Amino acid sequence: MADRELIAAVLAVGLGIVFILSPATIVQVHTAGRIPDRHGEYGADGAPARWLWVVRAVGAALLLAGIYFAASVLSLL
Amino acid sequence: MAVVGSILFAFYAAAAAAAMLFFDAPLLLVLVGSVLFVGVQYKVGKWAALRSVRAEDLSEEDAPQIHRQVESLSRDMGIDKPRLMIANMGVPNAFAVGRKGAGTVVVSRELLDVLNPDEVEGVLAHELAHIANRDVVMMVLGQGIASIVAIVAQWAVLFTGDNDIADFFVAMFVGQIVQMLVMVFVFAISRYREYVADADAAEEIGTGEPLASALEKISATSERQAASQANSAGRGRGRGRGRGRRNNDDGVDAKVNALCIFGMESGLAKLFASHPPVEKRIERLRNGR
Q1: Closest B-chain CA to A23
Q2: Which residues pair with B268 in a beta bridge?
Q3: How far is CA B140 from CA A34, B46, B183, B213, in A?
C-alpha cells in the first residue's frame, strides 16, 4: 500500500503545517457549536494560549509522522 | 444563504448515503442516529458551556435594570424570558445558549464594568435575537453535520484499506480535512446570522447605535489590554510562577497573534471566523443596514 503511505505523508505534512501556523483555526473548528467563545472579546473569536500550544505540539507530531511515511515510501526505513 | 444551506444538506445526504452503503444501515437507523448524535451534542454543549465559565444566576435584586430590559426585549421578540447568568470571563463578553423557551444568556462581569446601560441593552438584544432566530441550535446542527460527515469519511477510508498503520493515519487526516471543509460553510452561515442578529437587535431597540458603541468600546479596550500585556510580557520575563507567569503567557499570546496578522493565520482566520469583522458590523449598525 505505497499509495496510502504516500497520501499519509502528504496529508500529515500539510495538516502539520496548518496546525503549527494557524492553531486558532483548528481550535475554532473543533469548538464552534460545542462551547461558546469565552476567550476572545465580545464579537470576536479567541482561544487560550495553552490550547494553541497543544495544537502546535500536535502539528509537530504530524510533521514527524509525515516524515516517517515519506521515508517508508522511499524505503529508507 | 439558501445555497450554503443546500451545500450543507448535500454533505449530510452524501454521508448518510455512504453510511447506508458501507455499513448496510437502514435509512431510519441513520436518521435516528444523526438526531441522537446532534441531540447529545446540544445537551452536553449547553451544560459544558455554563460549567466552563462557572456561571451563576444573576438575581433580580442584584441587577433589576438588566432583568427589566430582558423582559421587555423578550416580550417584543415573542420569546420566553431566558435565564440570566453572570460569570468572570476575564474579558468583556456575553453569549447565549439553548433555544426558544429554554434559553440562557450569560454576561461577564467585565462587560458590565465596561459598558453603560444602553450599550448593555444593545448586547442583550443581540443575544436574545440569537435565541429567537434559533442560531444556537443552527451552530450545534452545523457542527453535528461536520462531525458526522468526518466520521463517515474516516470509516470509508478504513473500509477501503488493508487496515495497516498508514490506513489509520490517512483516515484520521481525511476526517480532519473533511470536518474543516464542512465547517467553512457552517462559519459562512454563522457570519451571516451575526448580521441578522445585529439588524434584529437594532430594530427592537429602534437604533443600532448602542450595539455599535458597545462593539467599538470593547474592541478599543481589548486592543489597549493586548498592547499593555505585550509590553509587560517583555519586561516581566523570568519573574517565576503564579500571576506573573500568567500575564507572561497572555503577553506572549498577544505577541504571537500580532505576528500572525499577516500570512496564513489571517487568511484562514477569515475563512473560519464565526463573526464578521467588528468594523463592518459597526458600519452596518450605524448605516441602518
Answers
A1: B265
A2: none
A3: 6, 10, 11, 29
ipTM of the complex: 0.84
Active site residue B71: no
Work out the percent of chain B whose per-residue pLDDT is above 90.
34
Listed as own residue / partner, the contacts of B151-160 with beta carbons closer than 8 Å and 24 or more positions apart are B151/B175, B152/B15, B152/B18, B152/B19, B152/B22, B153/B15, B153/B18, B153/B178, B155/B19, B155/B22, B155/B23, B156/B18, B156/B22, B159/B22
Instruction: Give the B window 112-151 contacts with A, CB below 8 Å.
Output: 123, 139-144, 146
The rounded average pLDDT for each run of 10 residues, N- to C-terminus, in chain B (289 residues) is: 78 83 83 87 81 86 91 92 89 85 88 91 93 89 90 88 84 94 92 92 92 88 68 54 41 37 58 88 86
Burial class (CB in 10 A: 0-12, 13-18, 19+), B163: exposed
Task: Find residue B107's DSSP bridge partners.
Answer: B86, B94
Alpha helices by DSSP H, chain B: 2-23, 27-52, 64-77, 109-114, 117-132, 135-159, 165-205, 209-235, 243-259, 264-271, 278-287
Placement of cell 515510501 in the chain: A73
Q: For B244-288, what is each residue's pLDDT tens digit?
A: 443 444 443 443 333 332 344 567 778 888 888 888 999 999 987
Number of residues assigned to chain A: 77
Burial level of B266, CB count in 10 A (0-12/13-18/19+)?
exposed
Judged by CB atoms closer than 8 Å, whether chains meet at A34 and B143 is answered as: yes
Grid coordinates representing B54 are 462557572
What's the longest Cα–Cα distance across chain A?
52
Is the pTM for the entire model greater than 0.90?
Answer: no
Chain B residue at shortest CA distance from A11: B173
